[in-house]
Each structure stands twice: as C-alpha cells, then as structure tokens.
Design brief:
53% of the residues lie in helices and 5% in strands. It contains 6 helices and 3 strands. It has a 3-stranded antiparallel sheet with strand order 2-1-3. The longest helix is centred in the first third of the chain and has 21 residues, at 12-32. The radius of gyration is 14 Å and the shape is globular.
Length: 126
Amino acid sequence: MKINGIEVELTVETSWEWCLRMWDDVDERLSFNRYYSVEIAKFEFCEEKGITDLSHDCFFCEYAGQGQFIDPVLCDSKCPGALAANYKYKENNKVLWCCQKGKNFADNPHEFNLYLKELNERRKNG
C-alpha cells in the first residue's frame, strides 16, 4: 500500500484505524446518495487520502497479506476483523467474515460499519 506515493506497511492498530475511518466515510457517502456503490465510495476515500495499491480495497486484507494476495483460508489467522470476530472461514461454509449474511459489507454497508465498531470495542476491551 502507498500513501502519497510512499510505501506503507500496516500494523494491526493502523489497519483498524484506517478501516474504521474508511467505513465511516463510506457510510456517510452512502447515506447521502443511495445510488452510490460501496466500491465507488471506497475508491473515492482512497483517492482523497492518496492511498494506492491497497489489497482488495481493504486495510485488513492489506495487513494480512502485506501487499500480497492472501488465500481466504489464511484470513482466520491473519485478518484483524476475522480474529476480532473469532470467525472461522472453513466452519462457516467458506464465507469470509466480511461477507456474512446480514453483515455483508457490500449488501449492508451501514450494518457492516456498526459491526466493525462493535468488534473494535470488543477487541480493545478484551
């Protein structure tokens, strides 16, 4: 991932910070325009922040793979969101934690944003 052309390596904390910032922004953009798509909102957020080369347009994917493609099976042990949710890919019909029914980031972005905040609180409070 690059910010303003400079290569950046994320930590768990910075991946959470960026993820929460992006999803607040996406949620706000979509609340003003129901015809907006999650993909466009994420793209515009990244463009405005000078962020390029972000794996799967996701800060957690970026952290888990550090710029490389990550096999979904590895999400259980590397994705900060999956770890916070204690979510197991193989035990859930090979559905990624961010694509769960009712909490799917693309279909329910507002609910997904709330879920992220809940997971972050759980994570911080142990």
